[in-house]
Design goal:
Largest sheet: none
Distance between the termini: 53 Å
Strand content: under 5%
Oligomer: single chain
CATH class: Mainly Alpha
CATH superfamily: Ferritin, core subunit, four-helix bundle
């Protein structure tokens, strides 16, 4: 059955492609944050362990919201590591950074997600896609706040 929600197929496809990048960045950041939760050590262990848990839990919920918006636009949501690796701007790691480096990398990841969300915003505004605009606004708020909180741990 055709989708008739007042947004053209070409606009829905472009928005879904942008949201797919956001989904990939969000899932990659989720995985990185969960990894750091498991592997953080040092004098800030308890603070970081709990902070990372709060953040990865929120990210796990966010990926579902983003994927469901892509589906509501009539497009498949990417759902594999291979797809995420091709779409994300967040680098994969294979080292074991210390706690301070974990924080720096998570700040960079949070800011990457913000930039990705912001890059999709002109598409949704032009298409008058308020539900996607709302989703993007909420994601930017969360990630900007998380980046600020993480940067504060570094004293900057």
């Amino acid at each position: 059955m055709p989708i008739d929600i007042g947004i053209s197929e070409s606009d829905r496809a472009a928005i879904a492609a942008g949201l797919s990048k956001l989904l990939a960045d969000t899932y990659t950041l989720y995985l990185k944050t969960h990894n750091y939760h498991w592997n953080v050590t040092g004098p800030m262990f308890n603070t970081l362990h709990l902070m990372f848990e709060t953040q990865y839990t929120e990210l796990a919920l966010a990926v579902d919201l983003i994927a469901e918006r892509i589906r509501a636009l009539g497009h498949p949501a990417p759902g594999s590591y291979k797809a995420y690796a091709a779409l994300t701007e967040i680098p994969e790691e294979d080292d074991a950074p210390d706690a301070e480096e974990m924080i720096r990398r998570l700040v960079a990841g949070q800011e990457t997600v913000v930039r990705t969300a912001r890059s999709v915003f002109p598409l949704v505004e032009e298409a008058h896609d308020q539900p996607s605009a709302d989703l993007l606004t909420q994601r930017m708020q969360v990630h900007e706040k998380n980046a600020w909180m993480l940067r504060s741990l570094l004293g900057s």
